[in-house]
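Researcher: Go.
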Amino acid sequence: MIPAQFSYRRASTVDEALSLLGEYGDDAKLLAGGHSLLPLMKLRLATPEVLVDLGPLDELRYVRVEGDTVAIGALSRYHDLQQDETLRTHAPLVAHVAGVVGDQQVRHRGTIGGSLAHADAAADLPAAILASDGELVVRGPQGERRIPAAEFFLGPFTTPLEPDELVTEIRVPVSTGTGWGFEKFTRRAIDWAIVGVAVVGKSVGLINMGGTPLRATATEQALASGASVADAAALAAEGASPLDEPHASAAYRSHLARVLTARALEQAA
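Model: Structure:
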């Protein structure tokens, strides 16, 4: 299908991107990797009047350690994160998950900030950032603010971002040797996960188990109380609201959540 007509603006700095957002407001959409936005535009589920391309903003592509935090530029691409030695050393779950998103074409174009801002419950990176107790740095005309990942995903494709704000950085704690694990089940390697699980220590993030990326809080509470991996994993679907649709029933997704949580926790042990 063909998208509706739109104007195209290419930002050369973050300040210019913010200026364009301030000028066009709700009529504008940000283009990072484009793997989520462009299909929606082709289906005319998204019809922005102005597309603001963030591609030239190399200032938002980096990984660096700042004290006890790993700072990741929002436009860092999955492939670069997968290969980055700093990230592999200090936030290995994020590096690993970036390397299993989609296929090579997706990983060479998709960005971590774009994935988080899109807030798709079926995406891999939101669960990894949730399990890592990460936070997002957001910039707008009123300055910079930091939003914990646990408060960022408000509903299906819904976040606290204002129309004139953009995600500039993702911050996760430096790994101190805490174990981690990641499991997902897909029909094909390039597909969205039917269910996935990201674990850092005793923190568990779930993929595609509701309308938003979420934590397996019942499992986390059980682990904190000294429950075994098997007993804690059995609670992984508690409080979740998985979809019931042709690819997988809600009951099947709940079963997968329990099985994959047990495997990911065993990896992290």
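Model: The mean pLDDT is 95.
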